[in-house]
Write a structure and sequence with these properties.
2 domains, 14% strand, Phosphorylase Kinase, domain 1, 351 residues, globular
Length: 351
């Protein structure tokens, strides 16, 4: 428990836990408890979460507008910002930006638990449905223009081409490395296969109705974009979504792909689990055949191999060599299961 709590201690040490900061939110704080990259606050107004935001105020306003819109459409199982004395949702403090949110009670979603997966699939559909129409809002259109990097709709082919170029660049780095290690050898042995995967994914998307869907406003929603298990809390079968730091505007299948990839790995890429997710989602929020075809193209992208390679060769994560190697081995072990899954998906949904 202590390793879990303090693994982000370097980041947490940059927080300024000043009582004057708390007073800006009109809070009296009795105790602070570090968890991941935030602090839980024991206050006179109940338990809260203190978060140091590492992006701009304009991006925070983009996120908050989306969340307020969703809450106004009867989906309240998302974060609630504490207002300051000045009725703002943030305080600029010594060069940083701080927010305080209500603490949500619940246990973290377990992707290995089929019940949790089904509950979350349904809740995700409800979240997306509550965000429909957001991009018609005039105020939000301005925020979207100011946060263009969060408008991903229509950009997936361009995005995948960039990732293909990155993978080829990493291949050059590994090839030229005179002191190759086990990670390099495994990477070089497999990279050509995954490059072909990316090209296939791009071709599927180009042959789909992807761009037409992006022009149909009712298909475009506020996507969470970071559906890690710890960002999903479950309390008596009610699912809550936390941490919208990476929220974007995109097609519904963006989140569905992200969620499905995380869930089916715990079931050896069992196609039945994918069917269950889609069925549960569509019982609340329908998907048409064009969206399913785009989902197939997105699922065909080898996100696992790409992300571990990027994180290793750019040192985006401060992991040990042993952790990087063990994760790479685990991801490439899925090769056959993943191939069978994609073939079954293609045949079942006639993609």
């Amino acid at each position: 428990m202590l390793d879990f709590r303090y693994k982000d201690k370097t980041y947490l040490s940059e927080y300024d836990l000043d009582v004057n900061l708390f007073s800006e939110f009109d809070l009296t704080v009795y105790d602070v408890i570090p968890v991941r990259k935030v602090f839980i606050l024991d206050t006179d107004k109940g338990d809260k979460v203190l978060k140091k935001v590492n992006y701009s105020i304009k991006q925070l306003q983009f996120i908050n507008y989306g969340l307020e819109y969703i809450k106004n459409n009867d989906f309240s199982r998302i974060i609630e910002f504490e207002k300051t004395k000045s009725k703002l949702i943030y305080v600029p403090w010594k060069g940083d930006i701080y927010c305080i949110m209500d603490l949500v009670e619940g246990r973290e979603c377990e992707y290995s638990n089929p019940v949790d997966v089904m509950l979350t699939a349904r809740a995700l559909a409800e979240l997306h449905r509550a965000s429909e129409g957001l991009i018609h809002e005039e105020t939000f259109k301005v925020l979207l223009q100011e946060n263009e990097q969060r408008h991903l709709c229509g950009k997936i082919v361009e995005n995948y081409n960039k990732k293909l170029e990155e993978l080829m660049f990493f291949k050059n780095i590994a090839t030229l490395n005179e002191n190759k290690n086990e990670f390099d050898y495994i990477f070089l042995e497999r990279v050509q296969y995954y490059e072909e995967n990316i090209k296939q994914s791009i071709n599927i998307l180009k042959a789909s109705q992807y761009y037409n869907l992006c022009n149909e406003k009712e298909k475009v929603v506020f996507c969470h974009h970071d559906l890690a298990h710890h960002n999903i809390l479950i309390n008596e079968e009610e699912v809550y979504f936390l941490d919208f730091d990476y929220a974007v505007i995109d097609l519904k299948v963006h989140d569905i792909c992200n969620f499905t990839n995380k869930a089916i790995k715990d079931f050896c890429y069992d196609i039945e689990k994918c069917h269950d997710i889609i069925n549960e989602y569509t019982s609340v929020n329908p998907l048409d055949d064009r969206e399913i075809k785009v989902l197939y193209g997105m699922l065909s992208f080898p996100e696992d191999f790409y992300s571990i390679s990027r994180d290793y060769y750019t040192r985006k994560k401060q992991w040990s060599e042993e952790i990087f190697l063990s994760r790479l081995k685990k991801k490439v072990e899925y090769k056959k299961d993943r191939e069978e899954f994609l073939e079954a998906f293609k045949n079942y949904y006639n993609c």
